[in-house]
Write a structure and sequence with these properties.
The complex is a heterodimer of chains A (514) and B (471). Chain A has 514 residues and is of the alpha+beta class. Chain A contains 15 helices and 21 strands. Chain B is globular. Classes of the chains: A alpha+beta (514), B alpha+beta (471).
């Protein structure tokens, strides 16, 4: 019998416990989660990305039930306001733009037409964007019309309710929950492995594998094992957040909003029972008082609780798995929730652990691969977040001047340069954000190349404009045929009408059928 | 404003340059008029190409079905490589489909678990082309789609001259200019080629693409090379043609044999071909030592310098057990199009192109390194990339993949299985799969492949049914 001990009972802890209890044979593994009600959880990420559907599907969770329990609304993307310049807005959708023509991505055609003469926004060719703007939602479908499958969807959820729901799931599957605070971590003097946790009540919890979900404290990976933290504040200077829930105002939007302010940005996340709000800012450029005043001035509804103030540092531990300890969630690193990646990074770590945990106690190969993949993902998400701050015309505050002119990682600098030069993306296949996402932010924030794609040279403009116009009309037609977001939520809530059938999940931001 | 059109001079010695030109025109049709192929092939070649399976897709993109390609060139299908270790059959490598996924798990994950309870199960029972090869059967794909086509993936063995003629004819159809020359001389200033003098004629281009190993262009530019993988003793390559085919080839198309003396690699064409890689006993396999040459497997530090791009064998020489040089030419062209030098900031483009070239090259080198390591042990140490792949395979039956790898994780699985590597235990996801599901699905897969094999024509019937080339 192998003992797996999970430290911390927030979203990360219960997600890890749920996955391990699902996939570890009970006759071979025992799973214990230790948490303390005296220690609050950060409750990361109320906005999610489509991959969470895949996670839930693997656990066998009914999507409608999940939505009811977590007070969820649908999410088709994120609206970024005031990022490229003041007054600008665009939606980064969970989906692609238009349809490829002759194996060339649609955005190249749009760029070519736009160089010739200004066109309607590229975002008008995204079904997810048009549905979002029209307050509509329907599940993506595989039909004769390929446009209906060009997007995916996620949820706005109450993460604390999700953790509670998963706790029930875990307890049913035999996860042992212990209430207690950790006082000491015992290590094997020879191997350095963690052998046991001493709790405040004097009890000792032995384990073979430890999952550190202790949040920013990183009790095991950071404190006990001393894995160093890599500070990325020079690229992502925001290091504070103030969060507050408010009374819902009006119909919930099927998208998250991220409104840029003078030294950071504000999130607005519509749930069924309330709205989530928060102001992420850089303390070097803004005081707490000013940040709070800005948040208060921009709240739509009445606050439902006191302001919750958080401190963090962007970065990650140099290893996510060290010795016999795997860190999941904030204990392994932190990237601000601008693209709703917090729960995704938790999910990724758990899924990789499930894929790589060997049947024997020699973790060497699995650990190396786990760290390689997590490191890769963290760096690519980091680059994508930096892009939002760096590709901007804004110079109206010290914060934006810094972001615009800072030296970015060479991996990102090369990517931006290639796009600026010839409109191409240095495409990768292993990473969360693929070409459509990079195109959305680059073009959404005004980074337009000066040259056409070489493949399109010689293409006749009149024919292209007609084809683009038809495609846009079709996108609009399909979007307007969808039920309203409110009607869609009504179908989820109506337990007597039977399940509103959802499509199978995929590990893709860009389409359930991709 | 930088210009979009570019005059391209493709330097080649036979097929590679034509492959590059056709791939480029596939991607960017209007460039056909801008390309000139300079072919240094001065005499008809009696060598043979051992094409990997990506050639099928390439030919299709040119509008040529498999059957038409075979008619035009006399090529023969290569279903895979039969692997033998110290006289004992170890396995079979092919990049065709194996088995079928089940409940979101790959076939190989499932096989890892299934074989633990059914030690007699062998991987090749779950691969249609392995069954076909073992039974002396064959299926040639025509323009008429067949649902079984998805299960077939094969390489080809084709005469160098026949393939070059075939590609040259296609270039002619697309109005791509080409001409044969005997000598070239590069006029170089710094890292830029000013002009290429070919048999006295001065050619000016904006972009020079060298697909020809040993053209001298890299030397003229003073480019540095580096060793790709290390061999303690000189690796001697002996190439012989027109020997009698080895019985060990059976109908698989290719054979890798590991023996105490060294490694023997053969592939079947007409009257037969053999290639032998030896370390200290170059007479292994009966091939005369004097026919051999000391092979250096090296790569250019940068495949794009100034206005010159090196593709395929011109950028790196590899044994190419599984992926051939022409595949690397095609993938290089795709990279080049993505970084097309239509702007003035070539440094950015070249930097990305060079990084991606390395990312493709190292896993390919890793395959060859692994095969040679199996043959020669510590004399050819494993690259860290292979060590990592192998360690994870042993631990949980998974193969980590890196960006821009040509082979898939499944391909690596087949390779490792073919060389007798074993998995210690399956991962949690696979362990959670019920034994009953596997016990039901696995035998049904074997029955399906066996039934298709039984209905397929024999190799001789298959080729004799192919229409003869007209004229």
């Amino acid at each position: 019998m192998r003992n797996i001990v999970i430290v911390g009972g927030g979203t990360a802890g219960w997600m890890a416990a749920a996955a391990l209890s699902k996939f570890c044979a009970p006759e071979q593994y025992s799973i214990t989660l230790v948490e303390s009600e005296a220690i609050g959880t950060v409750g990361v990420g109320e906005a999610t990305i489509p991959h969470l559907r895949f996670f839930n599907e693997k656990l066998g969770i009914n999507e409608n039930e999940f939505m009811r329990v977590t007070q969820a609304t649908y999410k088709l993307g994120i609206e970024f306001v005031n990022w490229g310049k003041l007054g600008d807005a665009y939606i980064h959708p969970f989906g692609d733009f238009g349809l490829p023509l002759n194996d060339v991505e649609f955005y190249h055609y749009w760029l070519m037409a736009n160089i010739s003469k200004p066109q309607r926004p590229l975002f008008d060719y995204s079904l997810a964007v048009r549905a979002a703007h029209n307050g509509r939602f329907a599940h993506p479908r595989e039909t004769a019309n390929p446009l209906t499958g060009t997007y995916s969807y996620a949820f706005h959820i109450d993460a604390s309710l999700y953790a509670k729901y998963l706790m029930g799931f875990c307890v049913e599957r035999g996860v042992n929950r212990i209430e207690g605070k950790i006082q000491q971590v015992l290590r094997d003097p020879t191997t350095g492995n963690i052998t046991a946790l001493c709790l405040e009540d004097g009890s000792q919890l032995n384990g073979d594998l430890f999952i550190d979900c202790s949040g920013f404290r990183s009790l095991l990976l950071g404190d006990a094992l001393g894995v160093p933290f890599e500070d990325w504040r020079k690229w992502l200077p925001c290091d504070r957040a103030i969060a507050v829930p408010t009374v819902s105002e009006g119909q919930p939007r099927p998208y998250t909003r991220a409104v840029a302010h003078a030294a950071g940005w504000q999130w607005q996340i519509p749930l069924r029972h309330r709205d989530g709000n928060g102001h992420v800012y850089a303390s070097e450029f803004m005081s707490q008082e000013d940040a709070q005043a800005i948040l208060l001035a921009n709240l739509k509804g009445e606050p439902l609780a006191k302001f919750n103030r958080l401190k963090f540092v962007a970065g990650r531990r140099s290893q996510t798995w060290s010795h016999n300890c795997v860190a999941v969630g904030l204990s392994s690193g932190f990237l601000e929730p601008l693209e709703s990646t917090s729960i995704y990074l938790i999910q990724l770590a758990i899924m990789k652990l499930v894929e790589l945990l060997p049947a024997v106690d020699d973790y060497t190969a699995s650990r190396a691969e786990f760290n390689r993949q997590l490191s890769h993902e963290y760096e690519r998400v980091r680059d994508f977040l930096i892009l939002h701050y760096h590709v901007t015309e804004r110079e109206d505050s010290a914060f934006w001047r810094y972001c615009k002119h800072m030296e970015v990682p060479s991996s990102l600098a090369d990517r931006i340069a290639l796009f600026k030069e010839i409109g191409n993306l240095d495409a990768y296949h292993q990473g969360l954000f693929l070409s459509p996402s990079w195109v959305a932010v680059m073009i959404g924030q005004g980074c337009l190349p000066q040259l056409n794609n070489v493949k399109l040279e010689g293409l006749g403009m009149p024919g292209l404009e007609v084809a683009m116009s038809k495609m846009q009309a079709e996108v609009e037609r399909i979007a307007l045929q969808m039920p309203s977001h409110q009607q869609a939520l009504g179908k989820v809530a109506d337990t007597e009408a039977g399940d509103w059938q959802w499509p199978a999940a995929a590990m893709s931001l860009y389409g359930v059928f991709s | 404003m930088a210009k979009l059109t570019t005059d391209i001079i493709l330097l080649t010695r036979g097929a590679a340059g034509y492959v590059a030109a056709l791939s480029l025109v596939n991607e960017v049709p209007h460039l056909a008029a801008k390309i000139r192929i300079v072919d240094l092939m001065v005499a008809p070649s009696s060598a043979w190409f051992n094409l990997c399976s990506s050639a099928f897709g390439f030919h299709q993109s040119l509008g040529v079905a498999e059957q038409e390609f075979i008619v035009a060139t006399g090529a023969r299908i290569k279903y895979g490589t039969r692997v033998e270790m110290l006289g004992k059959v170890a396995g079979f490598f092919s990049d065709a489909a194996f088995g079928a996924p089940l409940e979101g798990l790959s076939f190989f994950q499932l096989f890892t678990k299934y074989v633990q309870q059914n030690p007699a199960a062998t991987l090749r029972d779950y691969c249609l082309v392995a069954q076909l090869a073992a039974a002396g059967k064959c299926r040639i794909r025509t323009r008429q789609p067949d649902p079984l086509d998805d299960l077939i993936n094969c390489g080809y063995v084709v005469g160098d001259q026949a393939y070059t003629d075939f590609l040259r004819a296609l270039c002619k159809q697309k109005n791509i200019a080409f001409f044969a020359v005997k000598n070239i001389e590069a006029d170089v200033a710094g890292d830029t080629i000013q002009a290429l003098t070919c048999d006295g004629t001065r050619l000016l281009g904006d972009l020079y693409v060298d697909c020809s190993e040993g053209s001298g262009l890299a030397a003229a530019l003073g480019l540095a090379t580096r060793e790709i993988f290390h061999s303690a003793a000189p690796l001697r390559v002996v190439t012989t043609y027109d020997v009698n085919p080895s019985a060990k080839l059976e109908n698989f198309g290719a054979f890798v044999g590991l023996a105490p003396e060294g490694l023997r690699y053969e592939w079947l064409v007409g009257s037969g071909i053999g290639q032998t890689y030896c370390l200290e006993k170059p007479s292994y396999g009966g091939a005369p030592a004097e026919q051999g040459e000391v092979a250096g497997f090296a790569a250019l530090d940068s495949a794009w310098v100034g206005n010159c791009v090196f593709l395929g064998a011109a950028s790196a020489t590899l044994p190419g057990f599984i992926v051939d040089d022409l595949h690397r030419v095609r993938s290089g062209i795709l990279r080049l199009v993505n970084c097309w030098p239509s702007c003035d900031n070539l440094n950015v483009l070249a930097k990305i192109f060079n990084r991606r070239t390395q990312e493709e090259l190292m896993p390919l080198a890793a395959i060859d390194d692994y095969v040679l390591h199996c043959a020669f042990g510590a004399a050819v140490p494993l690259l860290p990339l292979v060590e990592h792949k192998l360690a994870l395979f042993h631990a949980v039956g998974r193969v980590p993949m890196h960006e821009a790898e040509t082979l898939t994780s499944d391909n690596w699985q087949v390779l490792f299985h073919a060389f007798g590597e074993r998995v210690a235990g399956s991962d949690l996801l696979t362990q959670a799969m019920s034994d009953e599901s596997l016990a039901e699905k696995f035998p049904s897969m074997v029955r399906f492949f066996a039934s298709v094999t039984a209905k397929s024509p024999s190799v001789s019937d298959c080729y004799s049914a192919v229409p003869k080339r007209n004229g």
